[in-house]
Specification:
OB fold (Dihydrolipoamide Acetyltransferase, E2P); 208 residues; 7-stranded antiparallel sheet; globular; 5 helices; disordered N terminus; two-stranded parallel ribbon; alpha+beta; 11 strands; 35% strand; single chain
């Protein structure tokens, strides 16, 4: 369960976010007219493809060139280790495609966006071996499908929110009835309930 008595970095960050909600809304990046397409992942599928699930706060980021493209490394402080190998209190490095180096910017449509100071639930997996990526860095599972914002609503409850994205989800043609995408399952849920649901899916995966 999430800690309920002692104040945490996440609680303090969410409180600040609630106080500046209207300002944040004014600063949202508009959606691009372009988009990427991906098969929609259900919650069990997202869990199956992930090595860990965390609730964390992006603290800083740096972009650089790798093999002719710009990538961004974001340092995330883990507030809650929801499932897998991550530990609360640790910091991890998450690699995403796109970013800005000097006066050159690149966008990878459909990629996860990690905004500094904005709490998120992240489904993560290790980087594939090889290449020039930073050792030990992680990537978000399913691109933007595996990155969900956490916000405080009018009822003062922290909830999981599916972020606006330019990733177009299509059903898996191999199944007769496509399950709901994970973002629709968890989106709108209180954070504590979402954590419980993810842990239940993780436990089911372990029994296979």
């Amino acid at each position: 369960m999430l800690p309920s008595r002692r104040p945490t970095l996440l609680a303090a960050t969410l409180a600040f976010a609630a106080a500046s909600l209207s300002l944040g809304a004014a600063l949202l990046i508009p959606q691009s007219a372009h988009a990427s397409t991906a098969i929609a992942l259900s919650l069990p599928e997202l869990v199956e493809k992930s090595d860990s699930v965390v609730v964390g706060i992006p603290k800083s980021k740096i972009s650089r060139w790798e093999s002719g493209r710009i990538v961004t490394y974001t340092t995330v402080a883990i507030d809650t280790a929801v499932a897998g190998s991550a530990k609360a209190g640790d910091s991890i490095t998450v690699r995403t495609l796109g970013g800005v180096v000097d006066d050159i910017g690149q966008i990878t449509h459909g990629e996860a966006v990690l905004n500094v100071g904005k709490p998120m639930m992240l489904f993560l997996r290790p980087m594939a071996a090889g290449g020039k990526a930073l050792a030990g860095s992680l990537v978000v599972t399913g691109m933007s499908q595996g990155a969900m914002a956490i916000e405080i609503g009018a009822d003062k409850v922290a909830r999981v929110v599916a972020q606006p994205t330019d990733l177009v989800l299509v059903p898996n043609a191999k199944v007769a009835v496509a399950p709901k995408p994970a973002s629709l399952v968890l989106g709108g849920q209180a954070l504590a309930s979402a954590v419980t649901e993810v842990r239940t899916a993780w436990a089911a995966r372990a029994k296979k």
